Amino acid sequence: MLRLLTAGESHNRGTLVVLDGFPAGLHVDEKYINDKLSQRQKGYGRGGRMKIEHDTVDFLSGVFQGKTIGSPISLMIWNKDYANWEKQYKAKHDEESIVAIPRPGHADLSGYLKYGFDSIRPVIERASARSTAAFVAAGALCMTLLRGFGADSVFHTIQIGSRKIAKDFSFSQIKELAGNNDINCCEEAAADDMRRLIDRAKGEGNTLGGAVEVRVRDIVAGLGSYAQWDGRLDSAIAQAVMAIPSVKAVEIGNALSASGLSGREVQDEIFRAQNGYARRSNNCGGIEGGISTGGEIVVRAYFKPIPTLKNPLPSVDVRTKKAVEARFERSDVCAVPSAGVIVEMQTIFVLTRFFLEKFGCDSIAEIKRNFDAYKSYLAGR
Taking the model in full, what pTM does it have? Predict the structure, then answer.
């Protein structure tokens, strides 16, 4: 089974990514991976850290002469801010280095209590959204594999604060329009309003959340299972997306609107097409009974506002137990415009895991044989 492990803290030497169970024989497209990492760092509302880091991957194992070799793949995303961190904080072991005031909405207090630290700093370092660079790098490598079997993916921003886009967009429209602005929004008017909301929040020392949509097409029918809870494709996607910091809800297909409609309005009618079965709509988001249908996989992620506020909320000093204002840590005002690629790559990682479970994970050649045979089988059913 494909497994992903990550290690590293926000300001240490770098973020380590380990992919175990990845097949041999895939040509590694480093440019594609680095382009995806660059997308994660861009977007209106990002903070000063993004001006320091220029993330790229450094493969340490599992790749020989540009191709994967079937052994665990490890790669590093080095932190360029490490030198500054080492000078300012790491060398200190005194009262000045202790962080004692947790931020409401962050992992600060929960982690401090759980692990028994004498400072909140270790929690801040590992709970940081810096870890999402690992998700993007792993997912981009996985997408290199899925693209070889016809898959494609897009993402776009559908909401920031109170401003939502006014209509739905097709896969091709998202591919054409979303990258035309720094909000990654297909509606220019909405993007303008979203920027104004971000600017207002910044001026008020506040932050904003929002929502993004990911679509993946040409994923073969039959990935996942209804047989066990942890074998369901939609539940695995939801878990992976919920692992992204600040994501508090995940929607597959048109689940939110469908919850207020009748069954005849929601269920996707089935008909016989030239090359198999198809559905006249896609309210299920490409997944029924925990199994991919062959339709577009549609995932939406909803982000709460970032908890680090320049105009802080009340908190408590964990040493003195006195009421104080929460501390400010360098942060973004709104990360939603750059978060779509993280949701996209987490979704892709899960789809790749289920893809390899079905078609094998030793080599690309083996997977292609099994995949082609399965496609022929589906066409004849």
Answer: 0.94
